[in-house]
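Thread: quick sanity check before group meeting

JM: Hey all, I'm pulling together slides for Thursday and realized we never actually wrote out the predicted structure for the chain we discussed last week. Dropping the sequence here so it's in one place. If anyone has concerns about the input, flag it before I start.
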Amino acid sequence: MSARDIAARVRAGETTAVSELENSLAAIAARNGELNVFLHVDDEGAYRAARRVDERISEGLDPGVLTGVPVALKDNLCQRGVPTTCSSRILEGWRPPYSATVVERLVGAGAVPVGKTNLDEFAMGSSTETSAFGPTRNPLDPSRVPGGSSGGSAAAVAAGMTPISLGSDTGGSIRQPAALCGLVGVKPTYGLVSRYGLIAFASSLDQIGPFAANVADAALVLEVIAGHDPMDSTSLPEASPRLLEHLDDGVAGRTVGLVRELLEGADPEIVAAVRRAADTLAGAGANVIEISIPELHLGLSAYYLIAPAEASSNLARYDGVRYGLRVEGEDVTATNELTRSAGFGDEVKRRIMLGTYALSAGYYDAYYGQALKVRTRMIEAFARAYGQCDLLLGATTPTVAFEIGAKAQDPMAMYLSDVFTIPTNLAGEAAISVPFGVGESGLPIGVQLLGPGRSEARLFAAAAVLEAS
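JM (edit): ok, ran it. Output follows.
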């Protein structure tokens, strides 16, 4: 059942929040051992939340638009009193004293958080294989990855454990796993959704967004979590957008740019699916034109300087003194070194070293400063594209889900998994991945719709057209 159907049935008294929670927990128990989706299932807290929802309904109150809907949370989102690890040993034993704004908004709308899902350590990865607690497997084919870094959140929905989940997207970490798991995944405009309570990877790139099995559920969740938050200084000073009422707007009269660079290097079956999507939009009344944005070729290089530089700064706080893992040394410096050596995995260490180098004296201007200039060029290039197009269309990923271990020892091959998603994060704009066809071994293909900042309503309308076909 969709999230909207569950909420409607609970509100109508046809089922209860506790019953829906029990269905979710049963689905988790059935496959979590095989798939490694949840790092922590908060049975006790979830039952409390579900009973509160049922009590409010018995009192004649309306708990909200997500009444009784179980939801999974990526384990880099703080939830008060619930273990939060970022899939890293360095946060061992840490329980946040507060909840992320998005978690509070979900609960305020009647949703029931059931637990925390696996991710690439500190969201650094594209396959959920860098987790300190083992890889998550794709529910559609357990020999393959679910994508990353939000692979656990994607797998939770794809496996039917919860109808919706939240992830974070720094370079494609919602859209890429959504594509590989056959889901709708949304990267909102930067600042549309509060980052308060999201444990930072790269603060100028991170955004929280939903996974769902259909476009309408994704729109509903985004409506709930979006909107200004005074606790986040980068939060846009405006209310949450109205998305559901625009789902039937269609694309008639819209100009959609099929972006050449968002197809280059993709498998033929991926390219064919994107071209079918273009034909579908044209058949629905859109004016589809082919365009080129050459600056997109610079995205991967700029990202892997900017993101590690910000990560180097953000992860400096993990020192073995204030919280999490502590490995005792002879003095403070030794304790810091031993703690970080033991607590961080190889990929996190790789990015910290790269970022520290890019920020160091003598190299800042040549690397980090240059990457910022490239980022500006990309923002300007997108602005030119949106001067002639309402939306852009391309592939979400170059391939369907690949086998576990296939790219784990080749960082560059892994980084290329996000080559089509990274540009949107650098520009701070909006994008959505929608399932559209199947490829190798019947695995899903995702196509990506991109729009300028605050264009979520038109993106969802176009996504609904693709979904309907």
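AS: nice. The first helix runs from residue 3 to 11. The chain has three domains: 3-241, 255-295+380-468, 301-366.
JM: adding both to the slides.
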